[in-house]
Amino acid sequence: MKSVRNLMPLCSKQVFPGRRFNSNSNDLTKDENKILYEKLVKQNYNSEKHTEASSFAKWLTPHYKFGPSRIMNYDWSMKSIYSWYKSKRIEFHKYNQRYVPERVKSLGSDIAASHFIVYRGGAIRFRGQNNFIKWTNKKEEYYVNLPQIYDPNYFVEAIDASDLMLYYQGIENFKNLFKLKWLSLRNNPVLDNWCLDYIGHAIPNLEYLDISNCPQITAAGIAGLQKLTQLKILVVNSNNIEIQMACFALEDIIPGLFVLIQDNNDIKLQTKRENLNVNEV
């Protein structure tokens, strides 16, 4: 690395870290380019061979005009590598949660959504049943208690997606659930206003919604829930005055709506929310 840095003064306008070099640079003369390339690669420069070189070789070896190889122009620190890994992991989760039309075509919207939620650790309840279906025994397959073929008699009535990291792509799996009345999305760190806007027009018959402990939700997201004309109970956990005012305005827009604004330090409201009977919704 020191030997490379010692050669840097040959390029008057060259900046080593954090950027690629301009391929149209004319800072060096032809002879200077040749000398720089031979010193870096320790080989004689051959214009024909260099032109025919593969893109991978050009990426690894120093360019005869621009000094260090392209691989040295990136930030290889642990912080940068972790940031890259984190972004790729988010991309993987979004792709894994995408809406699959083939699955819905073979199972139907309700059964397909039940497989999607139960497989990821959530729970669902079909209409006419009293208990939630959840994948608790990991030694068995997740679909043991779920129908595996299309059945028009199955309708998802309640979904408990608490503590699940569902992105917008995952919320799209809730489309066409016309019998869904109870939905819990609390403790979701990636749930944002776009998700609430989608819920507002995709689940028109929703009566209970829990979005507590979702830090990315703002007052604009609460306003997007005005499309849920059948909503009866909305659970929110925020000390933000704008979110609280949006909840009060939502109560005026939707008749019969009760917004439960849960304070972080209010134990009474927590007890009241836990005592709400799911079957009454």
From TrEMBL:
InterPro entries: Leu-rich_rpt_Cys-con_subtyp (IPR006553), LRR_dom_sf (IPR032675). This is ATP synthase subunit s-like protein. It comes from Schizaphis graminum (Green bug aphid).
